[in-house]
Amino acid sequence: MNTGMRTPRPFFPGRAACFPSFGGVGKLCLLVLLALLGGCGTLPPLAPRTPTTALAPDPDGVLSKTVAASTPPGEDSGFRLLPMGVYSLDARIQLVQRAQRSLDLQYYVFDNDATGRLLLRDLKKAALRGVRVRLLVDDLYTAGSQQLLLALAATPNIEVRLFNPFCCAREQLLGRFTASLFDISRLDHRMHNKLFIADGVMAIAGGRNIADNYFTLDPLQNFVDMDALMVGRVVPQLASIFDTYWNSEQVRSIESIVQAPGDRKLMQQDFDEWVDMAAPPPVLTLPPTDVLGYGPIGEELDAGRMGLLWGTARAFADPPDKLLKRTDADALATSVTLDVLKAMRQATSEIYVVSPYLIPGPRGMKAIKDLTGRGVKLTILTNSLAANDVPAVYTGYAHYRPGMLKAGVDLYELSPQRTTRNVRLGMFGSSFGRLHAKIAVIDRKTVFIGSMNLDPRSATKNTELGVLVDSPQLAREMLRVINISKLQSAYRVRLAPSGSGSVQWLSTDGEKEIILDSEPESSAWLRLYNFLVGPFVPDSLL
Fold this sequence. Notes:
The protein is α+β, with helices and mostly antiparallel strands. The chain has two domains: about 220 residues, Endonuclease Chain A (Endonuclease, Chain A, 2-Layer Sandwich); about 220 residues, Endonuclease, Chain A (2-Layer Sandwich), CATH 3.30.870. About 35% of the residues lie in helices and about 20% in strands. The chain is built from 19 helices and 20 strands. The protein has an 18-stranded mixed sheet, sandwiched between helices. Strands 7-14 form a two-stranded parallel ribbon. The longest helix has 17 residues. The N terminus is likely disordered.
């Protein structure tokens, strides 16, 4: 393509572009005024459309043959945990490059950064060789990527839709909300699901969005997270969930929301030029094996056979119309949260929970006390104040922390510094380590993996997706990963011996135990914020 023949239209290259420039008070006032004038903006009516569904797998496809060759007789669903970011991203790229029939993707965040553009490049290549691509993205963080997604949608075989979109002032996040002041009750509900399906036979689900910091590619901060590659009977369940969202009334085509130029060929050129000019694609450097001893998935796909762990699985998700539920009780009644709590209540011996944003609330505290009261050992790993990227959420968690400790919970909080030094879960370099995985292991035989946090937002506001698997072998591997973070990258939290109700953080320096009386690795400002704001932040806002 001769890019010297034309100048591409302006583009907003990243999430930072979602936020307004505060270079002058007058500019800010003008922005707010314009937004307020558009405060009564509404979405266009949903145009009539024919529902589309997942394509039936081709038994002669490369991925289908690999699944067939890898499945022992009588087995239900197979799994490969993906605890390392670069391995998880590489798995997605490998599946996109090998897909022959369909690719269905559903994400809360799909950033215009190196990771997002790398995946979008390959999605376009797949579409050009005849693969049908359906991409569903929540609209909260699309201000910096909407033009890129719109240009991608001009490619034959690709359709892009937005969940619960904003109507107006779409170039900036602040403008979006202020232009929709009378629609906040709707916009406060988001699609938090993360799902990737290739050829209807292989899927990846878990906690990771599509952005650099979920795959240890961000120079400043990266998340400790968890996905799993899935095959077998669970994949059609996931495909059905995707179809339900794709065809729901809460979803609009990106063309109906984002203003498009008339020439689709120019839009396709824009996509290529924007991607090429932004930066070269990242080079994924994979260690020979991951923390569990597995090699790159591409090597097994090339061989036509994969080593997987097998079990009986059930996939489930909140209904896409969760945002229309009149009360929190109505929303909770059909939620992923309720399904997970039911599974936990059936525990007889022990539960391990990893939740980066942890606000149990009265219902959760009752469940915790019921479990520990009948002898179930409960171990929880969450973010410390220093590791939490949403300090307000930490204030909600801290309110319940003494009660959890009194109930007998074995509580751990992630240390950013220790995570950075612990290379077993990825090369974090000098970046900041934060927890983002949403997983649980019940009685060493049942595993949960998904997008759900143990907080009010996941329970009653956002939609979520999860998978429960009965597999002692998978549980064993998940516990290995949890223990690496718990023992090597976290502080153990306890009540202070003084009986004052305060807490202490325990760590080790070699063989020496270190006891800290205030939130470790956190700034004085963060601790002051937590002290002043914490008592006034209701759980319902978190």
